[in-house]
C-alpha cells in the first residue's frame, strides 16, 4: 500500500508525494523523475523494491514543482538550484533519519547533483547510495540529438528560443489537446529501438501534466549545469550510472564522464535503449536499485554491529 500526501514548501509550492514501504524501514529510497515527466516513471522500480519483503526500504517518489500533481512554480524558481533545495527539504522532513539512497532520471539526476553541490554537509551525512539514470553533469555539452553537428546546432537554437517563449506562457497546459499529434516526435526523441505503447502513453500523459512554464522554464539551467567537480568529491558510496546507447538527449559520453568522476561508480550501457530507461529497460534499472539497496543495507549492518557490541560491553 502507498500513502499520498502533499508537502508544502516555504514559497507556497506544494509537492505531491507518494510514500510506500515499511514506515520503520532503516533505509529510505528517494526517486526523482525527469524534465516534463512525473513520479509514475518509476512505478516498476517501486514494485521491485516492494518485492524485497522484509528487506524493503521506505520509498519516496514525488512530482517536482510544476510537474505532475505538484503545484505550479514561479518562472524565477524554475531552476535546478531550486530543485536541489526542494530535494533537501524532502529529505529533512520526510526522511529525517537513517541512510538514504537517491535515484534520479534525467533532470532528477541533475537535481541530485545540485543537492550535493548546495548542501554538501547534509549530502555527505545522509546519502549512502546513488543510482543515476540517463542524465548528465555537463549540461548540453554532449547533446547532439543523434543528428549531424550543423543540424543539431540549428535545432538547439530553435529549442532555446522556443523554451523562452514557453517559459513566459504561464502555468496552463494547452498542449494536452495535441498530444496524439506529438506522439511520433516524442517517440523519436525519447525512445530507442523498442517502445511499448504503454510506455509511450505514460510519457505523453506525463508531458501533458507539465505546464508550459515548466517545459520552457527549466531549459536554461539544465543546459548550463556543470557538476563533474561536485561528483568527484562525494566520497566512496555505492553508485551506479545507466544509459541507453541510443539516447539522443544524454548520450553515452554523459554517463561515461559521470562514472569517471564518481569514485568506484559502475557504468551500465543498455543496448538499443533511448532516454527513458525506467520504462524501456525496467529490469536493468530495478536491478541497479535493488543491488544498491542491498549493498547499503550490508554496510549499515556492519557499522551497527560494532556499535551495538560497544554499548553492550559498556552496560555490563
TrEMBL record:
Q: Which Pfam families match?
A: Abhydrolase_6 (PF12697)
**GO MF terms on file?**
catalytic activity
Domain of life the protein comes from = Bacteria
| AB hydrolase-1 domain ranges (all copies) | 29-286
Q: Which Gene3D superfamilies match?
A: alpha/beta hydrolase
**Which Gene Ontology cellular component annotation is one that this UniProt entry carries?**
membrane
PANTHER family in the record: HYDROLASE, PUTATIVE (AFU_ORTHOLOGUE AFUA_2G14860)-RELATED (PTHR43798:SF33), MONOACYLGLYCEROL LIPASE (PTHR43798)
Mind telling me what this protein is named? Pimeloyl-ACP methyl ester carboxylesterase
**What is the protein's species of origin?**
Actinoplanes teichomyceticus
Amino acid at each position: 500500500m502507498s500513502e499520498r500526501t502533499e508537502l508544502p514548501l516555504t514559497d507556497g509550492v506544494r509537492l505531491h508525494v507518494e510514500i510506500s514501504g515499511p514506515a520503520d524501514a532503516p533505509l529510505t529510497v528517494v526517486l526523482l523523475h525527469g524534465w516534463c515527466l512525473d513520479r509514475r516513471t518509476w512505478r516498476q522500480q517501486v514494485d521491485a523494491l516492494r518485492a524485497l519483503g522484509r528487506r524493503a526500504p521506505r520509498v519516496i517518489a514525488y512530482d517536482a514543482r510544476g510537474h505532475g500533481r505538484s503545484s505550479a512554480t514561479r518562472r524565477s524558481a524554475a531552476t535546478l538550484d531550486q530543485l536541489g533545495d526542494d530535494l533537501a527539504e524532502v529529505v529533512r522532513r520526510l526522511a529525517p533519519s537513517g541512510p538514504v539512497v537517491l535515484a534520479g532520471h534525467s533532470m532528477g539526476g541533475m537535481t541530485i547533483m545540485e543537492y550535493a553541490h548546495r548542501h554538501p554537509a547534509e549530502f555527505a551525512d545522509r546519502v549512502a547510495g546513488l543510482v543515476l539514470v540517463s542524465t548528465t553533469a555537463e549540461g548540453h555539452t554532449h547533446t547532439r540529438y543523434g543528428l549531424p553537428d550543423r543540424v543539431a546546432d540549428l535545432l538547439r537554437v530553435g529549442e532555446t528560443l522556443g523554451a523562452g517563449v514557453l517559459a513566459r506562457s504561464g502555468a496552463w497546459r494547452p498542449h494536452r489537446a495535441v498530444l496524439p499529434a506529438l506522439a511520433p516526435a516524442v517517440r523519436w526523441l525519447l525512445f530507442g529501438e523498442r517502445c511499448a505503447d504503454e510506455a509511450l502513453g505514460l510519457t505523453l500523459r506525463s508531458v501533458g501534466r507539465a505546464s508550459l512554464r515548466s517545459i520552457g522554464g527549466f531549459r536554461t539551467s539544465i543546459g548550463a549545469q556543470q557538476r563533474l567537480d561536485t561528483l568527484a568529491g562525494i566520497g566512496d558510496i555505492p553508485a551506479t550510472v545507466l544509459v541507453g546507447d541510443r539516447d539522443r538527449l544524454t548520450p553515452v559520453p554523459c554517463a561515461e564522464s559521470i562514472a569517471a568522476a564518481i569514485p568506484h561508480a559502475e557504468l551500465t550501457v543498455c543496448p538499443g535503449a533511448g532516454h527513458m530507461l525506467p520504462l524501456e529497460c525496467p529490469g536493468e534499472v530495478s536491478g541497479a536499485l535493488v543491488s544498491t539497496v542491498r549493498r547499503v543495507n550490508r554496510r549499515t549492518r556492519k557499522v551497527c554491529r560494532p556499535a551495538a557490541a560497544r554499548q553492550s560491553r559498556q552496560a555490563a
